[in-house]
Amino acid sequence: MPVSQLxxxxxxxxxxxxxxxxxxxxxxxDASRAGWTTEADLLEGQRTDPDGVxxxxxxxxxRLLIAERDGALxxxxxxxxRGDHAYFGMFAVRPSxxxxxxxxxxxxxxxxxxxxxxxxxxxxxxxIRQREELIAWxxxxxxxxxxxxxxxxxxxxxxxxxxxxxxxxxLLVKPLG
Length: 177
Hints:
alpha+beta, single chain, two-stranded antiparallel ribbon, 5 helices, 9 strands, 29% helix
């Protein structure tokens, strides 16, 4: 998909309901199974909520980057400036559009924005370590596994209801040239 078909912008408060719907559809429930990024077998419940998305939209040094085509919200990702690096998260592509190369374009734009706006030399993210297919996708984009794990927030249903007891996040990093 040519980049020229996409328009990128930072989210505003008016975008929050649509962003929550997009993120939920990409990760949770039966709708998420239309794409390949579903976490429905690992987690039930919500992936995020309006308050969580609003915090990202309003937080200093953070932005929720939106990709639109023909005025329709089709993808988003969180960028957060953390000193010498940027954090990448809340990445969602509409399930019916997954697998067509759109994710590559979005992550490349996120990396470009982080370099251009904040001058950072590294992008970091955390991914549920059991998501081997997703981690492999990031590795093909130049991210590397660090082996550094952080615990899943068990007991905090704002992040979902775990379906297994061994979930953890692994830190992935990529130098930005």
